[in-house]
TrEMBL record:
Organism of derivation: Arcanobacterium wilhelmae
Domain TadE-like intervals: 16-58
Membrane-crossing segments per the record: 20-47
Database matches in InterPro entries: TadE-like_dom
Pfam family, one: TadE
Phylogenetic lineage: Bacteria, Bacillati, Actinomycetota, Actinomycetes, Actinomycetales
Record keywords: Membrane, Transmembrane, Transmembrane helix
Protein name: TadE-like domain-containing protein
Length: 122
């Protein structure tokens, strides 16, 4: 009889423990998922800015307006803070600075810069 009283007391003390474990695990998995999604968004933005900067430098090297091309090529979800293309007799250079898009609007992850230099093709 004593054994059943002890096990009943232990079960009443452990009631709700699995719920707390579930909540803790769920919050951890949710945070890990948000981090993976944020890294994917940042990588996507960096890839697009890098490609557009490279193509803009190529156009600048052959005498076209690389800045206009870059601004028209990038999606509106990427906030561009600076686009600058220049050329001289030997090379063309484009610099693009953009904010890292964030999954949560209240959180800022800063900015990144991509610089591409191409040889002049005259």
């Amino acid at each position: 009889m004593r054994k059943s009283i002890k096990s009943a007391t232990r079960k009443s003390r452990e009631r709700g423990a699995s719920s707390l474990e579930f909540v803790g695990t769920f919050i951890g998995l949710l945070l890990a998922t948000l981090v993976v999604i944020q890294l994917g968004i940042a990588g996507w933005a960096i890839m697009h800015v890098t490609d557009a900067t490279r193509d803009g430098a190529r156009l600048t090297a052959i005498g076209h307006n690389g800045e206009l091309f870059i601004s028209s090529r990038l999606p509106n979800s990427i906030a561009i803070t600076r686009i600058e293309c220049s050329s001289n007799t030997t090379e063309a250079r484009c610099v693009v600075r953009a904010k890292v898009p964030s999954l949560l609007p209240q959180v800022s992850f800063g900015e990144f810069t991509r610089t591409v230099t191409m040889p002049q093709l005259h």
